[in-house]
Amino acid sequence: MTEPQPADLPAYDPAEEPAQELRVERVFAAPRAAVWRAFTDPDQFARWFGPVGFGVPRESVVVEPRAGGRHAYRMRQDGDDGEGNAVWGSFTEVEDERMLVAELLADGFPGADGPTPTWLRIELHDDPAGTRLVLTQGPYTLFMNEMAARGWRSSFTKLDSVLAAAA
Residue 18, SS3? Predict the structure, then answer.
């Protein structure tokens, strides 16, 4: 039996994959107000956001935590002075220290011809160990869902350090 050759295989089309919704839960050893600030204060956000090896320049961060407020940043690889990948949009729902919901556009998705629409929901809950964060985001292809999950988990490792230093 002959193995299929690349020319025999159909072209990859991410639009043909069913949409995936990402869900990540994490408990932070910090009060809810501190975790909230990490997401809503541009200086704090720039200190931790992005997986290990990536970051966001402070000057690229805009966070206006109110319905209709802007949310934007550029993520780039550490040591890269280029533009990086832009993410921008607005908050559609905000409950102070409890919930942020945003509709966003993102550059740089594999297989995309232009900016890709996505949504993000962050919920914060009191937990005996500090604050339980529940993040949902999508829609993603299966590939992007896994990439985003890894990115958030890595970012949250950086956030743990920022929250511990502030305690």
Answer: coil
